[in-house]
Amino acid sequence: MGKSISFDIAALILLVILLISLFARKMTDGISNRLFMIIVAVSIVATCFDIASVALDNAHGGNESLLYTMNVGYLMTHYLSAPLHFLFVISLTDTWHKLRRHIGLQFVMLLPLLVTEAAFVANAGNGLMFSVANGYERGPMFWLIYVTTIFYIVYDAIYIFIYRKTMSCRKILAISAVIPIGLMAMVVQMIFPAFLVEMFFGAVSLLIVSISIQRPEDYIDSFTKLMKYSAYASDLRRDFYNEKHVTVIMLNIGNYQTIQQMLGFDSATKLLMEIADKIRGVNKRMHGYAEMYYLDNCRFRMVFYGRNRARAQEIAEALNEELKRETDFNGLNISLMPYIVLADCPEEITSFRMLMSFGADFHTRYPYTGRIMRAGEVIDQRKMSIRDNIDAIIDRALEQKSFEVFYQPIYSVAQNRFVSAEALIRLNDPEYGFISPEELIVAAEQNGTIHRIGEYVFETVCRFISGDDFKKLGLDYIEVNLSVAQIMNGDLPENYLKIMERYNVAPDKINLEITETAAAYAQKVMADNLEKLTKAGIKFSLDDYGTGYSNMQRVIQLPLKIIKLDKSFVSEGNTQKVWIFLKNTVKMLKDMDMEIVVEGVETQEMLDAFSDMQCDFIQGYFFSKPIPQKEFVAFISNANNG
Ligand code: C2E
Ligand code: MG
Ligand code: MG
After folding, report:
1. Which of 263, 291, 346, 530 fits a disulfide with 267 by CB distance 3.0 to 4.6 angstroms?
2. 436 lines ligand 1 (CB under 6 A)
C-alpha cells in the first residue's frame, strides 16, 4: 500500500499560514523570534521534501537518485527540528551567556546532531540509514534518528526544569507541549508507517507555541508601543535569576496624575506617547540599544545589557534634560517632574522583588531635586531588605512567637491619673532587630497574615486583662488597633468575641481603634462589624484623626465615642494658624459630644495647652513610651498611687 500524504499537505498549509502570521504580527525581532521563524521555515522545507519523496515513492520506478535526494533532504531537515527546538528553549531562558562558558557542554549538546547528520552523508555510500533501490526502505542504523531525537527531548526537559523559574507557567507549558506531541507522533508513525503524521503533529505543536507565547499583544503597550509591565517583570526576573548584570534607568513622572486630571484622558495619553517618543529618540540618537518598557502610571524603564551599560548614565542625563524642558501642550505650558533613578543590578538592587517594590513608588518617597539619583545612594538597604523578606520575617515571628505587645499609658486630664493604655505590637527580629510596626502592618495586610497577627495581639491583651496585675491597676480599658484589612473581615466580630469569652474579658475593658482612612470607606462589612461589636458592648475610637482626607459625613455616622488627634497634627500646633485650627477642631468635636485623646504629647507645654483646651486624655512620650507589660504594670502602680 502507498503512503498517504494528506497529513503532510495539512501540515504544509498550517506552517505556511503560521510563517505569514509571524511576519504580519511583526514577531521577527530578537533571537527567540528569529529562531522560531527558522524552525517554521525548516519544517516547511522538510514537509516539501517529504511530500516529494512520498509522491515519487508511490509512483514506483521513478528516478532513483531524485528519490534518494528527496529522502535525504527530508530526513536531514526534519531531524534538525529537535536540536533547533532545544536552541529555542535556551533563548527563551536567556542562558546563552551561561552556555558560552562551558565548551564541554556545548560539545555534548552538539554531538548527537553531528553524528546523525554525518550518518546521512555517509549513507550515500553505505546505505545504513535507508535505501531507495527497491523503493524507500529503512536501513539497519535508522534507529540513530530516534536516539538523536530522544536525546534532544531529554535535553529540552532537563533544561526547562532547571530554568523553570525564568519563565511563566504558560511559557513552560507551551514549550513542553512539543515533548508529548513529538513522542506521540513518533510512536504513531512507527506503528503505522503509512500515515505520515510527524510533520502534522510538529506543525500543531509549533502552532501551540505561537498562539501561547508569540503574542505581541501580551508584550507591547498599545499606546506607547513599548514593551509592557509583564514583559519587564518576566525579563528582569529572568535576568536576576540568571545573574545577568544589567543597568536600569527607572523613570517615574511624579506629577503625571495631576497632569492627567488637568488634561483629561485623551490628551494625557497623547502626552504619554510623546514621552515614549522622546525616550526612543534619546536611545536611538545616543546608541543606547536599551530595551524599553512602559509599565503604567507614567513609569518607564530602560534596560541596558553588556557593553551598553556604560552609556546608561549619559543617556539618563540627556533624558532628564529633555523631559524637564517645559513643553507646550494643547495650549498649556506643561512641566514634567521626571524622577530618574539609575540602578546597577544586582550590585545596587540585589533582587527582583526589591527592584519592583522600589520602582513602584520611589517618586513619592524623595523630594524632587531634578537630578538623577543613584539607587545605591538613596536605597536604605536595611529597609529594602526588610520589605523584601517581610513574608519570611512574619512567618518566623509567628512561628517562634516573637511578637510582643507593649503598652503606652493614657492619662486622664479630669481624673489626674492614668486610666487606660494603647496596646502596640513590637517585633525584635533576630536578623533585622527592631522592625517598625508600620512596616509590619502594611506588609502583613498585603500577604494576609494581618488576621493572625491581629488575633495574637488581641489574645495577648485579653490574657493581660484577665490577670490579677491588671485588676490591681484599676484601669478602665485597653485600646487595641484594628487595621483596614481587619475591619473589612466579616469574621472579625465572632473571632474577637470568642477570644474575650475564653479569657472572660468584659466588653467595657476593650476599646478598638480604627483609622480615619478605614472609617472613610463606605463598606457594608465594616458597618456590620462595628454594629455587631458595639452591640456586644465594645467601644470604638477613631485613630489618627487629621491625617486622612476622610469623608466626615460618613465618619460622624459611625458609632465612635473617642477621637484620637494624630501626633503629626499635634506637633504642627506651633504656628498660629494651625493652633487656631486645632482649637476649633477640639471645640467642634466636644460639641459633638466626643471624647478626645491627644497623641504624641512630648512636652509639658503641649500637655498644658491641650489640657487647657479641655481635651480629655493625653498619650505621649511626655508620660511614657510604649513599654513591655511588666514595666507598664510597675509604671501605672507607681504613678497612680504616687
Ligand atoms: P497609632 O495607633 O497611631 O499608635 C501611636 C503611635 O505613636 C505609636 O507608634 C506610638 O509609639 C507613637 N507615639 C506615641 N507617643 C508618641 C510621642 O510622644 N511622640 C512620637 N513621636 N510618637 C509617639 P508605633 O508603636 O510605632 O505604631 C505605629 C502604628 O502602627 C500605630 O499607630 C498603629 O497604626 C500601628 N500598630 C501598632 N501596633 C498595632 C497592632 O497591634 N495592630 C495594628 N493593626 N496596628 C498596629
Ligand atoms: Mg492607635
Ligand atoms: Mg494614632
Report:
1. 263
2. yes
Give me the domains of the chain, ranges plus CATH numbers.
6-214 (1.20.1070.10), 218-386 (3.30.70.270), 389-641 (3.20.20.450)
pLDDT tens-digit series, residues 62-96: 688 888 999 899 988 988 888 899 999 998 888 88
Backbone phi, psi, residue 286, to 5°: -100, 15
Q: What's the grid cell of residue 215?
A: 503574542
Residue 442 has pLDDT above 90, yes or no: no
The pLDDT tens digits of the residues spanning 284-334 come to 999 999 999 999 999 999 999 999 999 999 999 999 999 999 888 777 888
pLDDT for the residue 550: 59
Per-residue pLDDT tens for 522-578?
Answer: 678 888 999 999 999 999 999 988 876 656 777 777 888 899 998 887 776 567 888
pTM: 0.65
Q: How many Cβ atoms sit within 10 Å of the Cβ of residue 124?
A: 12
Rounded Cα distance, 425 and 516, in Å: 19
- 620: Cβ below 6 Å to ligand 1? yes
Question: Mind listing the pLDDT tens digit for each residue in 230-288?
Answer: 889 989 999 999 899 999 999 999 999 999 998 888 999 999 999 999 999 999 999 99
Average pLDDT value over all residues in the chain: 90
- Copy the grid coordinates of residue 503: 479569657
Residue written as cell 501561547? Answer: 212
Q: What residue owns the CA closest to ligand 1's atom 12? A: 600
Which three-class secondary structure state does DSSP give residue 575?
A: coil
Give Cβ neighbours of residue 72 (< 8 Å, ≥ 6 apart).
120, 123, 124
Which residues have CB under 8 Å from 130's CB, separation 6+? Answer: 71, 75, 123, 136, 137, 138, 139, 142
Please work out whether the CB of residue 600 comes within 6 Å of at least one atom of ligand 1. yes
Give residue-wise pLDDT tens across range 189-224: 888 878 888 899 999 999 998 888 877 667 788 899
Is there an atom of ligand 1 within 6 Å of 46 CB? no
CA angle 606, 610, 612 (to 5 degrees): 120
Give dist(CA 166, CA 234) in Å, integer.
7
Q: Cell 502626552 maps to which residue?
A: 271
Pocket test for ligand 1, best of 599, 607, 618 (most atoms within 8 A of CB): 599
Residue 534 contacts residue 540 (beta carbons within 8 Å): yes
Q: Separation of 501 CA from ligand 1 center, angstroms?
A: 27
- Residue whose Cα lies nearest atom 20 of ligand 1: it is 600
Ligand 1 and 445: CB distance under 6 A: no
* Integer Cα distance of 126 and 130 in angstroms: 9
Q: What are the cell numbers at 81?
A: 527540528
Q: Which atom of ligand 1 is nearest to the CA of 405?
A: 41
Evaluate: CB of 603 within 6 angstroms of ligand 1: no
Q: How far apart are CA 276 and CA 187, in angstroms?
A: 52
CA of 545 to the centre of ligand 1 (A): 13
Question: What residues sit around ligand 2, an ion, with C-beta below 5 angstroms?
Answer: 481, 513, 543
Among 481, 482, 489, 565, name the best residue to mutate to test ligand 1's pocket (greatest count of ligand atoms within 8 A of Cβ).
481
